[in-house]
Structures are given as C-alpha cells and as structure tokens.
Write a structure and sequence with these properties.
Shape: elongated
Number of helices: 12
Structural class: mainly alpha
Helix content: 55-70%
Largest sheet: none
Strand content: under 5%
Order of helices and strands: HHHHHHHHHHHH
Distance between the termini: 56 Å
C-alpha cells in the first residue's frame, strides 16, 4: 500500500530513541487525524501505533473498531500489547462517556486485554484520590474470586485496583492486605530503587504512609 505524504513525513521522525513525550509533541502538531492514525496503525510497529492512538477520533472508535484494534495488538510482545491497550484506555476511552460505558462491560470479556482495561480503569478511578466509588466491596469480591486464575496482564490490573482501594478506603484496607497475603502475588518481585512494590501489604503501607506524612 502506497503511503500518504503525511505518513511519509512522520515515520522518519520515529525511531528506537523516540520517547513518549516526543510522540505527544508530534501528535500535538497533527491534532486529530483518524485516517492518518489508521495508516500509522497499519505499519504494525509499536511506536507508530502509540502515535496513532493519540490522533484517533474517539467518535469513530466503535465496538467493532476497538475489537479489531485489540486483535491487531496480539502481534506484539506481552509488554508492548499491554502498553498499547493502557495507552488507548488512558488517551481515548476515558475521554468519552460512551467509551467508558463500553469499558464497563469488559469485566468478563473473552479478551484479556479488554479485561485488563476494565480493571486498570477501575484502579485509575481510585488512584486519583477522590471519594472512593461505592462499588469497592463488589469489585474486591470479584478480584478475590478470580485473580489467581486470571491471565498475568489482568492479574496486574486487578492487583492495582485492590492496591488503590486499600490506600483510600480504610473500611476495606485490611481486606486488601489480606488478599495480598493470601495470593502472595508479587511478594518476591525485585523493585527498582524509588519504585513502590506491587505486593499489596507493602504497596498499601508505603502509599498510606506517604499520604499521612504530607
């Protein structure tokens, strides 16, 4: 397929040294261009696809289109496809009420990436530190029932949600810590200096302490 002049001008600007901030700058200049986004997406390359997500028109992201994007992500490595779905969720799906309503239906989707998006979205709602949504107990029941059998990419997002529930919802904090102790998820994970461990008892203790000291 012959590429448009727009794509020909943009693709040479993207290489292995390109950072996410660089992609945001390029996207800011382009603004919204769904046709170009689909052309960049068709390259099947990770960084052009991240840029494509930034310039998509969310009104054109129907359920069928999102299912196709999800399917397309399967060619990438584990980390890349998780990053693509997280980027799509944060930069497009959370910006539109209809897309949020669609994400709310993904808890039991056959797609692991869509289930990840559901849980990561729920975690981000709590991460902002606003008044905890009222469905914390129901979400924790679902996490307790399913986390040990889930795919690793979904496990992480469930754990993330339980972590932030534990930080901001005192009523359910002990329950979240107990969940971490029971599953043992991420207990022996090596963590870079300055980063918070994913193991729930440690994560919750550190994040609560940060907020109490501020």
């Amino acid at each position: 397929m012959k590429r448009s002049s727009k794509a020909e001008n943009i693709l040479p600007q993207i290489n292995s040294k390109t950072k996410l901030g660089d992609l945001r700058k390029i996207a800011k200049d382009i603004k919204k261009d769904h046709e170009l986004a689909m052309e960049l997406w068709s390259t099947e390359e990770f960084l052009p696809r991240l840029l494509a997500i930034l310039i998509m028109d969310k009104k054109l992201l129907s359920e069928d289109v999102l299912n196709k994007l999800d399917k397309d992500m399967q060619i990438h490595t584990f980390d890349e496809r998780n990053n693509l779905m997280d980027w799509l969720m944060a930069n497009q799906l959370t910006k539109d009420k209809k897309k949020i309503a669609l994400m709310e239906l993904w808890e039991n989707s056959p797609s692991a990436l869509q289930r990840r998006a559901f849980w990561y979205y729920k975690g981000r709602l709590r991460w902002t530190g606003q008044t905890p949504p009222e469905d914390n107990a129901d979400l924790l029941s679902a996490i307790e029932a399913n986390i040990t059998q889930e795919e690793p990419e979904v496990q992480w997002a469930m754990n993330f949600t339980a972590g932030w529930i534990g930080v901001y919802d005192q009523k359910n904090r002990a329950r979240c810590i107990k969940l971490g102790e029971k599953t043992g998820l991420y207990k022996d994970e090596m963590v870079s200096k300055g980063c918070t461990p994913n193991y729930l008892p440690e994560f919750i203790a550190i994040e609560v302490n940060k907020r109490n000291n501020n």
